[in-house]
Design a protein that fits this description.
Helix content is about 90%, strand content about 0%. The protein is built from 3 helices and no strands. It has helices at about 5-30, 35-40, 40-80. Helix 1 (about 5-30) runs antiparallel to helix 3.
């Protein structure tokens, strides 16, 4: 099966976008629910874990974008070699 660089670009962009949204929500939510967090400290730890997972996911999305770029450059180089 031929690997298409466009698929890697699309998947990487979606994953990075979702992870940035997750990071923003998990970072801003504690300021919105400050009264609840004073009583339930475990919620803040859950948000920290979600934040870390967002960062890890964004690194995976960036990896997919870089892999798509690598495949695109390989196709471009192979096209020049044929000419």
């Amino acid at each position: 099966m031929k690997k298409s660089y466009k698929l890697y670009y699309i998947l990487g962009s979606i994953i990075v976008g979702l992870c940035i949204a997750i990071i923003l929500v998990a970072s801003v939510l504690p300021f919105a629910i400050r009264d609840i967090l004073e009583e339930h400290i475990y919620i803040s730890w859950i948000l920290v874990i979600i934040d870390v997972l967002g960062f890890i996911g964004s690194f995976f999305g960036i990896y997919l974008l870089k892999k798509g770029n690598f495949l695109r450059l390989n196709e471009k180089i192979k096209g020049k070699d044929k000419n």
